[in-house]
Specification:
- By secondary structure, the protein is mainly alpha-helical.
- It folds into two domains: 106 residues, Arc Repressor Mutant, subunit A; 77 residues, Arc Repressor Mutant, subunit A.
- 59% of the residues lie in helices and 11% in strands.
- It is built from eleven helices and five strands; from the N terminus they run αααβααββαααααββα.
- The strands form two sheets. The protein has a three-stranded antiparallel sheet with strand order 1-3-2. A two-stranded antiparallel ribbon has the order 4-5.
- A hairpin with a 2-residue loop joins strand 4 and strand 5.
- Helix 4 crosses helix 5.
Length: 187
């Protein structure tokens, strides 16, 4: 993978990384503490050190945490990598979820609205204004079954709504949903 791809992870892959309870538990501990080693994080979350290390590397690859070496230890902190597009916005949204004691299942449910590139494409298409199914089929190039599946997921997650036969963007109720929508629309 070249350096440019490492610094520009796709939103849908970043959302897949965020939609994991183990990773969220690690991130929540990092929000509570300034910085911790892999072993300390593993202990506080009840994970094995190897599992914690893998999960931390995934968060780091998406720019949601940063790390530094201290002799033989790797120390992590909840700090966005400024070289990664939207990482600071996404981390701020996750921090709000932490500060409001949002359940992991709620965070995961919200992030899964954007875990597929086609759903992001649909939101961007709807940025132009309300459309019916036929207009969306034509604009997206998706099959009707794929379109139906993705629209249902976006509606279930509170990202779009259907009124009078037309789909349109709906401002999510929680802050993380708003951040995710903003990143999807303007990235």
């Amino acid at each position: 993978m070249n350096e440019q791809n490492q610094l520009r992870p796709t939103l849908w892959r970043t959302c897949r990384t965020m939609a994991c309870e183990s990773r969220l538990r690690l991130l929540w501990v990092l929000f509570d503490e300034r910085e911790l080693s892999v072993c300390e994080l593993a202990y506080r979350t009840g994970m094995g050190a190897a599992q914690a290390s893998v999960q931390l590397r995934a968060l780091n690859a998406r720019g949601l945490i940063s790390c530094r070496r201290e002799k033989m230890r790797v120390i992590y902190r909840a700090e966005a990598n400024d070289a990664v597009d939207s990482a600071s916005q996404l981390l701020a949204g996750l921090r709000m979820c932490h500060d409001r004691n949002m359940r992991f299942s709620t965070v995961i449910r919200q992030t899964t609205a954007f875990t597929h590139q086609r759903r992001i494409e649909l939101v961007r298409i709807l940025k132009e204004g309300p459309m019916d199914s036929e207009q969306l089929l034509q604009a997206s190039g998706m099959s009707s079954s794929a379109l139906s599946l993705h629209l249902r997921k976006l509606m279930d997650r509170g990202i779009i709504e259907k009124v009078d036969g037309k789909y349109s963007i709906f401002l999510p109720a929680n802050q993380l949903g708003k951040v995710l929508l903003q990143v999807a629309l303007f990235r």
